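Hi C.,

You asked whether I'd gotten around to modeling the 219-residue construct. I have! Everything is below, sequence then structure, no commentary in between.
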Amino acid sequence: MPAATGLRIVLAEDSVLLREGLIGLMARFGHRVVAAVSDADSLREAVQTRSPDVVVTDVRMPPGFKDEGLRAAVELRRALPGLPIIVLSQYVETTYATELLNVGDGTSIGYLLKDRIGQVEEFLDALDRVVGGGTVVDPEVVRQLLRRRRNPLETLTAREREVLALVAEGRSNAAIAARLVVTEAAVAKHIRNILQKLDLPQAEENHRRVLAVLTFLRS
């Protein structure tokens, strides 16, 4: 998928340094931050008035510094289904990731650790995937979920769980094949087995992949 350019972005981040850094990063790659705010109420207002292509928001913001940004993101997705949103978190908080992905069908959603921003290519790749309708979960969040979750994933083999974890990160079949040093045909077979074992309904292939990720995160 070609990289998206010229995106209109609403950014919500209370740290001035990080906010200004993200504005500069987005501009460097041809995007425009149409509103940069520091609290959840301003985020809601900016989305209503600026009609962005994508929202990038912190989890914790004023006034309580708890989960104000996440709550705003959930509300926005309920009001505007399909609005691409990337939520940034300082720490691994799997409950937040699961709650965000539970809204709607889980597409066009990203949950990343802030450290990922420093890996510019990975962050921009996640932005492209989310805007393109994908679901991207930070690899560290995926690893912690794998350690904690058992059912209904207990029927999957170790390699199938590994493939599903990479699917949850938003990787394509080709990228998964390269990571695992196997053929794309082998990856496709693993994914078919995963979908069958998770007893997912017949649907368009990409939609079933999202359902598999949601099953993984909710289990």
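If it helps when you're writing up: The chain is about 50% helix and 15% strand.

Thanks,
B.
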